[in-house]
Structures are given as C-alpha cells and as structure tokens.
Design brief:
Helix content is about 45%, strand content about 25%. The chain is of the alpha/beta class. It has 3 domains: about 70 residues, Orthogonal Bundle (Arc Repressor Mutant, subunit A), CATH 1.10.10.10; about 110 residues, Periplasmic binding protein-like II (D-Maltodextrin-Binding Protein, domain 2), CATH 3.40.190; about 110 residues, Periplasmic binding protein-like II (D-Maltodextrin-Binding Protein, domain 2, 3-Layer(aba) Sandwich). The strands form 2 sheets. Strands 3, 4, 5, 6, 7, 8, 9, 10, 11 and 12 form a 10-stranded mixed β-sheet that branches. Strands 1-2 form a two-stranded antiparallel ribbon. This is Transcriptional regulator, LysR family. GO terms for molecular function: DNA binding; DNA-binding transcription factor activity. Keywords: DNA-binding, Transcription, Transcription regulation.
Length: about 300
C-alpha cells in the first residue's frame, strides 16, 4: 500500500460514495473502484461494505481510516515544513475566530502583511465548538475564542481578560448620572443574551451571577451573534450584557455603555491550536503578535 492508495481510500470514506470520491479526485469511477479492490486484496480483508447507496466501514476499515488519515496529515506537514524552510515565509494561514473575537484580528493582520507580503489569510467564523472541530480536522491551524476553553486537545495563550458591560438604547433613562448600573437593576430590564450554540459559556456565567443574588433575569431573546444582539438593543428590544470589547468593535451612535457596579466577572480571550500537532512557521509568527514576549509563545510551541 502506498500513499496514493491511502489517499484514495480516505477520500472514498469521507465522500461516502465512490462516484463522489472520483469527482473530488478528478478521476473516473472504474479505476477508483479497482484501486479499492486491489487494496482490499493486498490487505486480505474487507474495508468497506455497501449499505444501499452509501458505504460503511468494517472494523478493519475503521482502523485504516483513523490511522491513515493521521499519516496523510503528517506527510502533508513534512512537505509544508520543507517548503517553508526552503522558500521563506509565504502561503496561506487558515485561522478561525468567534464573532465576538474578530476585533483582535484586523490590526494584527494588517501589520503582519506589511512584514510578510506573500502571506494571505483565510478566516473562518464559528462558535468555539465548531472552531475546535475545524482545528482537529486540520481545516484551520489557529482559532481565537473566549473562555471557557477545552484544554485536553489544545495548547493556548491568553490574549486579554476583559470585564462585562451593559449596552442599552441611548434613550433609556438608567445610568444617566452615574454611567453605571447594578445587577438588581439589570434583572428588571428585558435582556438579550449571548448564548453559544453548544456547551457552556458567557450565558451560563451570567445566569449564575444573577442566581447568587437571588435574582431572575428577564431574557427576551438569545443569539450566538453579537451583531444580531446589538441590532435588537438598537431597536429597543432589550439591553445586552457583553464583553467590553463589543462596545468598541461594534460601536453605534444610538447606544450607550454602562459599567456594572457589582459584577466582577470577566471573560478571557485565547488563541488555541492543536496540542502536539504541526504548526506552520506562518502560524507561529502570527501567534507572536498576540504577546509582546515572543519567547513565551515559542516555549509553548
């Protein structure tokens, strides 16, 4: 079995049909079917079985797919590392970000491209769970996410810790003199809440903060998208409790920002990448832009 056969097999598994796999590989279906037959003969075992129009892995096929995919990734990593060593810093950095963290990228990308003009960026957006899957599937190398983070599979560096603020319509009378609000006052307002698609995050932290005070917030809408929440605030639907960076990244003239006097919660922003996985020189250099002490990052890579 060679790398070409392994790539054919992995593609068949991921596409679910030989016809679709052949299209992706830019080859005809009969030769690809023959390659699968040859591979099964060589290994002396059935790797795939038909289930209607789709294909299912046998136990042996599952082993070959899982280990073979990792082997292909490692081979690609070797090629990329050799190219980088011989050709300087050039290529594409695939990086993901939660929409609430996008504010950490534009200035850094602009500065980075000024120094490395042959580097381009492909930016993926998603919630932390989706971005984590993208890293595990090698679709992206890095992601910028908010706490809490999953530490089992990922290395990380902290970018910033920031407090929560209340963002509300400019014509609401609260906070006019003090520029602040209390949790008790917030419990009376209709609130629009930032809520992850999966798992726990800011939403659960804030609910717990209300509960500790014997308060029950009046949540009228939820969304994982800050832009949507601020549009709702702008329309007078409710107030939002968001990380302070949201007030600068998504500033609007008809909104005001109040500090929350008795809420001492904060949320952290982190850059994460695959633990013990290959990281391109481009990714390593870009990580340095998140920390003034670049040696601190290099020690974690």
């Amino acid at each position: 079995m060679d790398l070409r056969q392994l790539k054919y097999f992995v593609t068949i598994v991921e596409e679910g049909q030989i016809t679709l796999a052949a299209k992706k590989l830019n080859m005809a279906q009969p030769p690809l079917s023959q390659q699968l037959i040859n591979l099964e003969k060589e290994l002396g075992t059935k790797l795939l079985i038909r289930n209607g129009r789709s294909l299912e892995l046998t136990e042996a096929g599952e082993i070959l797919y899982t280990k073979g995919k990792k082997h292909l990734y490692n081979f690609d990593d070797i090629i990329n590392e050799v190219k980088e060593a011989g050709g300087g810093l050039r290529g594409t950095l695939n990086i993901g970000t939660a929409i609430s963290c996008i504010c950490y990228l534009p200035e850094r990308i602009h500065h980075f491209q000024a120094h490395y003009p042959h580097v381009t960026f492909k930016i993926w957006e998603g919630d932390p769970f989706r971005l984590s899957d993208y890293i595990l599937d090698r679709k992206i190398e890095l992601a910028i996410v908010r706490s809490p983070i999953e530490k089992k599979n990922f290395s990380y560096i902290p970018i910033e810790e920031e407090p929560f603020v209340c963002i509300l319509p400019l014509d609401w009378p609260v906070g006019s003199k003090t520029n602040s609000v209390t949790m008790e006052e917030l419990s009376v307002f209709p609130l629009v809440a930032l809520h992850r698609v999966n798992g726990e995050g800011i939403y659960e932290m804030l609910l717990e903060e209300f509960t500790k005070r014997g308060l029950k917030p009046k949540i009228v809408a939820e969304s994982p998208n800050i832009t949507i929440l601020l549009s709702l605030v702008e329309s007078g639907v409710g107030a939002a409790i968001l990380p302070s960076s949201a007030s600068t990244s998504y500033s609007r003239d008809n909104l005001k920002v109040l500090s929350i006097n008795d809420c001492h919660l904060s949320t952290g922003t982190y850059a994460i990448w695959l633990k013990n996985g290959y990281l391109s020189q481009i990714a390593k250099r870009f990580l340095e832009t998140f920390n003034k002490n670049s040696h601190h990052i290099q020690n974690k890579l």
